[in-house]
Design a protein that fits this description.
By secondary structure, the chain is of the alpha/beta class. It is about 50% helix and about 20% strand.
Length: about 280
Amino acid sequence: MSGTEHEEVLLRQMQEGVCWLTLNRPDARNALSNDLADRLVDELEACAIDRNVRAVVLTGAGSAFCAGADLGVIEARSHGVVDAAKFVEDLDAGRPASLRRVRAVEMLREMPKPTIAMINGAAVGGGLSLALACDIRLAASDARLVFRFFRLGLPPDYGLSFLMRQLIGEGRTLDLLWLHEEINGSVAHEHGLVTESIAPSALKTRTEEVAGHVAHGPTYAYARAKEVLRFGQAEALSRVLSQEILNTRLCNATDDAREGFEAFRTQREPRFRGN
């Protein structure tokens, strides 16, 4: 594989029409810092208009795919609603940056060429959303797909509920979100969340095969087929992402969210009281 490194937090490499984007914060399990989220959106936007890019693969460096949003950033925004007017002011001020952070999910869905997630390890929260937003999702059989929002007293974000419902329906989505904190790649394949579950040692080779196949296909026809399959969904997803920003901010202001973060920090079970 040949290519160049555009940014330390995100690697971009081209291989025979396939653009490989690698989230590159391995020490932080590729958690989505503001810098990484911005770079990912920039690269996806560039891929969408680059005629040399005929397929996009998204993966993570090291042992994880993506640990989701940086919890330190989320916790820093958590506060009690003391002044309703100030709360609304803060929400309005932060909305553009929040929408920018989740833009990558929309870009992966709308990309006028095939997108592939190579889920090499843990895909947590918003990181799982990035994977599920891809057209083809190839997961190591031992990869961990983690739905751990509620343990922190927060609702799903990055469009996760929307994406899961599109793939597996409302009933199974609620079952997984409420009753299962995580599943492995094999179980995810049984549920229909991932396209294939693959032995870890064969994941890279299989991803190269799939990416090479679609990259040599009729790109424009693929784009038109994808457009029809997703017809009307872009606006719905955009509304969901916007509503999620409000929901997360509202939940951040609750006692349960503060308890969730304290329990996470001290590695104990949370004791939620419903407020």
